[in-house]
């Protein structure tokens, strides 16, 4: 099985974060699930996924979506969940978990009724080729669902003061810089529909969602967690410890409000 050697700068969240003994990947998966599973599962349900379907969840991370799908397609259907680091996916009777690099490892062709990937392709080199590989893994009539953010984050609406607003905006810009330096494309969500069309998929349907974040919002908790998880890379990008402490205070202020990134959930189907 191949490794990340093919990803020049490497998966940005692969390294340990600055959260002491806590496992930063597990915490990241927890906030991802809390913030985005309601949208992802609503969209998956809209495909008609049900008993008997064969599904693939690529870059399954914490596995909450894989396990939801496994319950949905049971007892006769099944789910294959893949990831470079599959140790967090969890288990279910009809769930097969595989260590797999979607950039370099092969996928079976015409094998799945449904293929899903959330916040994975943005991190990959040659993501258009990967999307083509996912499309070819669909059986005729099968569904591809890609869930991805657009660029960065929306505006800050309410901050404790102008300095706090500036701290937040500089932090967001630094996160985007760190992502790009690792080879990720923070604006990938807005490109998915066109890439699906280029991959020959039909019936392309785009759903976009934004919310207003406050201190308790799971999406903002995820961003707060990112300030720890990417601490070293953010420091290398020029954010001081004082800056990071300030922005963490801003993001936990009860009066803070900011617009989330746009989350796109895009469907396409392989022609029958
Ligand atoms: C931001 S997480 C998203 C996890 C999950 N899809 C979710 O939304 O909760 C990205 C996931 O993609 C995985 N990943 C990164 N590069 C990959 C690759 N080349 N092949 C397979 N998985 C990869 C990471 O290990 C990580 O679990």
Automatic annotation (TrEMBL):
Pfam families attached to this UniProt entry: Methyltransf_11 (PF08241)
Family matches, as InterPro entries: Methyltransf_11 (IPR013216), SAM-dependent_MTases_sf (IPR029063)
Top-level taxon of the source organism: Bacteria
Endpoints of the signal sequence: none
Keywords per UniProt: Methyltransferase, Transferase
GO MF assignments: methyltransferase activity
Domain Methyltransferase type: 56-144
GO BP terms, alphabetized: methylation
CDD domains tied to this protein: AdoMet_MTases (cd02440)
Protein name stated in the entry: Class I SAM-dependent methyltransferase
